[in-house]
């Protein structure tokens, strides 16, 4: 029979008040509970309790502010100690498992759009100078590359960008409508040192000024992808651009979605969104006033008329370009009376009804565990946070 190791680590993590296990934590550090077989702390027991398992015993220590270690006996006795183990207070005992808290440091890496705006991403990483990403990020055609520094568990938060608001100053359509907010997608991943990641930080869609009417460009999605096989870890969808408000009826853009599909005839399975003319029941019309671009997905570009379509992640992630710009990360452009769809894992679509368009939000994907997914969370440019517990 294989002999069990005498020491092992039980990972106990809490993040932003969401319990993933057991923890003692603050904003910059967390804890592991280290376990050693056949040992005990002597002379520092402050309380003796019954516990069905070592994990339960550790939980009892967690809720006692004086507890720093435990002696767990195989018959279910849990002794809480007020001291950590050291050379003078540890003795051998083959019927006991010793456990104690050790502090760990939590490193957070924050990726931004680095000041880039519109359809194209940043050209360099100078904006990270002075941070823990200085000289660690390479930028090529807006896509940021970063190498995982340590093997460990990482919490990744991705925020999609919002779509631009739609505005109109003509007498028939005075007012504005809101661009959809980007999704926030959070998951935990076990990553190995040396793994190369490619990241797109979604950028907010843009308006055209001055103009009598300006539907909003769609927001770009935020992507974290393993470079070797272009495997998505996490993607947060961008919001659809705001449409033109006609006769008091606002055509707000849809939010970035929690699901993998885009909305408003959005794409699926990593595809781009569709454009659909509801009155004529026609897909991909090429005549005015339905000029715009749906959002791009991970694999496929958006559909467009009257400008340059939004590009998929695999094709570089540029936003669409027409009368307005879609955000980097696959956001579609707006033109005439039609806004742009949001980018994401699958692109947001655009629906034209009674001569006025409405844009869908991009879809999201989360291949991590301990998932927390929220639609319509983020306003402005996207961002990506990668948090290491070491």
UniProtKB/TrEMBL annotation:
Kindly indicate whether the keyword RNA-binding belongs to this entry: no
Where does the ALK/LTK-like glycine-rich domain start and stop, copy by copy? Answer: 151-377
**Enzyme Commission numbers on file:** 2.7.10.1
Ranges of residues in domain Apple: 33-96
How the protein sits in the membrane? Single-pass type I membrane protein
Give compartment(s): Cell membrane
Q: Which domain of life is it from?
A: Eukaryota
| Catalytic EC class | transferase
Which residues constitute the signal peptide according to the record? 1-21
**Sections of the chain in a coiled coil:** none
A Gene Ontology cellular component where this protein is annotated is: plasma membrane
Q: Which InterPro entries match?
A: ALK/LTK-like_GRD (IPR055163), Pan_app (IPR003609)
> Mind listing the GO molecular function terms for this protein?
ATP binding; transmembrane receptor protein tyrosine kinase activity
Where does it mainly reside?
A: membrane
Can you name this protein? receptor protein-tyrosine kinase
